[in-house]
Amino acid sequence: MVDRSGQPYRIGFVMEYSIGHVTFTQMLQRVVERDPSVRAEWFLIGPTTEVWPATMFPFSRNYTLSASASARRMVGRAPAFDVLFMHTQTVTLFMASLMRRLPSVISTDGTPKNIDESWPWHHEASRPVEAVKRRLLSSVLRRATYMMPWSEWCARSLVDDYGVEPGRARIVRPGVDVASWDVGPRTGGGPLRVLFVGGVFERKGGPDLLAALQALDVDWECDIVTKSDVPGGPRVRVHRHLDQDDPELRALFGAADVFVLPTVGDTMGLAIVEAMAAGLPVVSTRIGALSEVVLEGTTGFLVQPGDVAALAEALKRLAARPELRREMGAAARRRACQLFDERANGPEVLELLKTAADQGAGAGRAG
Q1: pTM of structure
Q2: Residue 248 contacts by C-beta under 8 Å, 6 or more apart in sequence?
Q3: Candidates 3.40.50.10140, 3.10.100.10, 3.40.640.10, 3.40.50.2000; CATH matching 192-339
Q4: Tens digit of pLDDT for each residue in 243-273?
Q5: Side-chain half-sphere of 117: how many Cα atoms within 13 Å?
């Protein structure tokens, strides 16, 4: 690090603030509060943030273009920052002019190509809009001081599909407060208690889970935490209004025997990381970077998206062997502590930002 004579690092955090990105933002906010060498300003770009009415500019109906325009307007000229941090590339398309003057780090859980491959419901906009997005994104990626992919899967796409220099793609995994997720031992008695946490029930594979449960010949109960309108039943309890820090949500993790998220469209599910930190075996799908999170046969099981029979078989194995659930849950907890602890990963994010800042305004790459 260069000698800053005790001056704090002035960092602008431009954050996509929706679904799992909220969890990531909250992690960074906690980490920044613990670091007196950082002075942060936060720009939170949610799905309802608008910079122009859609009636005036039809392209503003495109989420990426609208979010990027909103971010650029909110940040303004940003003369007081030493470095800009942007998560994800969704908010970066109009930042190129700032990135010529300021060092910058772009964090992402998945490139657009990653998302096209792993989200079956992801639809491209019209060809002219997509062409504009590709040109803008290419320019932004060339100017970033560092890219910060969350996974090896994402890093490969940045290098292979977008021409990012390997040395500028620094993998830093997201983190959770693993200490707060230590819910203690489980009794393992009674019916198999299954927990599902996913904001969009269909995309997270909720219908496949319900179908698999109906195929089980063992006693089970299921708690579903979602924002979607899902009917409950005699053995299915639906919780639609629980926030991340709600004690009732933590109690559900503590009471569960297994966490199941058979998602059919994902990059890296932070709910899975939280379940692992809570000591739960995980059943999920081979999609996105989830195989880098869940170790098949060690911390849980992975099946192909939409394979209800394989999902039911994994649940049967866990239902029949309480000792296997305990072993996998303990291994999941250890893996979460090793790879996804915010007290290690959060400071690593800040260190990368400080490195970029220390390289000076010339660190931005000209396109």
Answers
A1: 0.89
A2: 239, 242
A3: 3.40.50.2000
A4: 877 889 999 999 999 999 999 989 988 999 9
A5: 14
